[in-house]
Each structure stands twice: as C-alpha cells, then as structure tokens.
Task: structure prediction
Amino acid sequence: MNQRRFLCLLLAIASTQSLATAARAAKPWEMLIPFKRVDAAKDKEYRLTENQGPWMILAASFAGPNAEQQAKQLVYELRRDLNVEAYIHEETYDFTKPVMGLGLNRYGGPKVMRHANAAKFEELAVLAGNFTNVNDPTIEKVLDKIKHARPDCLDINKNKSTTQRFIGLRELQKRLSPDTDRREQGPMRNAFVTRNPLLPQEYFVPDGLDPLVERMNRDLNYSLLNNRGSYTVRVASFRGSSTMKLDEIERQGRGLPSKLEEAGIKAHDLTLALRKQGVEAYEFHDRYESIVTIGSFETLGRQLPDGKTELDPRIVDIMKKYGAQQQKLPGQSSVGLVPRNLDGISFDVQPLPVEVPKQSVATAYAPSNRLFH
Result:
C-alpha cells in the first residue's frame, strides 16, 4: 500500500469519528449515594478558584454599575433552583493598547495595529458546573437545563433594567429564529462549555500527540514529525472536518473522498512538488486539517532590547516567497492579494512561523493506543 492510499485510509478513520462520547452507565454504588443538595446561601459569596472545574459552563456575563449584584443573584438562583454549583469570576478587558497583527510592515517587521473601538472595562461572568472532563456525559444535561432556565433576576419583564451582556440582541435573535426549541429557551440560551480561566494553558495540553494523529504522520517520508527543529514556516493549510453528517458518510460509502481526505491529498501532493524543486518541505495531518511547512529552525530569531523578536531573515524570506502577491484583479482597476500556487495547489495568503509538533514515544507505543497489531 503506497503512502497516499495509507494516508487516505487513516484520514477516513479520523473523518468519521464523532466528537461526542456515549453516555456511560451508572456504576452500581452510585445508586446508593443519597441525593446531594448544592450549598445555596443568599448572603454568601461564591468566587471562582482554581479548585473548580477544570471544565465549566459559562451561563451569563454582566457589565455595568449593578453587574455584581445581578451576578450574585444569578449564582444564588442557579444553586437554589437548579442544584448546580455556580461561581462568579471577574475579568478586566483592555482594548486601548496596540496589538501585533498578521503579516509584516514595509520594513519587514511585525505589523502593529489598534482596536477600532478602544475601551477598558470590567466584566463579571457566572460559571456553572464542576466537570473533570470535557466529555463528561452530564455536561450536555446541565447545559440544556441552564439554557431552558428562567431565573427571576434575568427576567426583563420583572426588572426595570439588566446588566446582562447583549441581552437586547439575543432577544431579537430569539424572536426571529425559526428554531422552535431555541424560541422556548430562556435568557441563558447562549450558554456554552468553557475552561476554568484561572487554570494555566498547560493544564489543558495533552501529553504528546493524539495516537491516531501520530499514526497518520509517522510513516510519511516527509512527515513534520521528522523535522528536527523547534520551528518551521506553515505555507499552506487545507481544512477538513471530523464528521457524523449523513451526506459526508454517504460520500465515503460511495467511495468519494471526504473533505478531510481531500485536504490530506492536497497537502501530500504539494509537499512532493516542493521536494522535487529541492525545497525542505514537510506535511502534517490531524483530525481537522492538513498543513505544509518549509524549513527547520531552532529559534524564531533575535530578541530585541524592548522584548520584541526580530524574525530570522530565512523565515522572512520564506514568508515573502510563498505569501500572496499583489496583482490587478480581473476586470477591475483595483489591486488585490492573489495566493501563489504550485501544480494548481494554492499556498496560504500569509505564511506564518509555527512550532514543530513533537512525537511522544511513550504515547505512540503504549499497547492500549496501538491502532494496528
């Protein structure tokens, strides 16, 4: 079996895997545990700490003079009426400072941009639930319960005013929505699953790559896993998707490639085309997209006294060589960015330096994670 056919097989496996986890059966001893009430005291403060979560549900957010009072009331009602652990978390948002934009300025340095609406404000979020795993089968049940709840403190008919964010827009969307279930939902219909913001990013990064992703890339001649550097330049991205959609599954049943397989084939073919030109190109595939990168670098460049990084000139050269070029648009007097291509396969408009993913030997060779025996 050649590399391309084997890659398509693994991509087909990835494209049909559902992101949802089947509900687990209750353990026998769980039936013996008495129903437990969540602590709910009106005069008590429930502030979010690192001990909650790590996965939670963002029920609502508030900003303004009476935001804290309304957030506290919502926490109390969620605990009292829904028997759900709820907490308040405060964040400060500052959009008055400049930020680094995509691309380079005319001097080859990073673009510095400003927000169109510069503002600084505090926002209070109410987070509910206390889940150890994002695939916990009870998350969907609690989320649905919150979306259909109608707390008194969020009832705009009972209160003269509200500090709930975007409530006017959401009420309008509700009235205009053709979805019957959405119209029946309450003022927290836009609740969603999120992480405990007080935990560091590293907490949510798994050890090593997904075993299937490692298998998809391990045996390729020009796999990015074989890149010995710490950084490389992503020059092309091809988006696919894991799916449980009936039409996608039927396409695969008829022998037609899924979007994920098509993305993988493009990345594989582009990598080979670049290699034929003597370019140090690599390919990498995961459950959602395939990318092509060029080069191998130990660092991004030189750190300047002001803390900024001056990119390695070799990285800048790759970004310029494979980035979009300015051309006069067909039938128009204006000039636009047109992606470059090789053998009919387009590069990204703006190539960017990225970290090289590292293979976890322990994960890849663990007996429980082997896909083929």
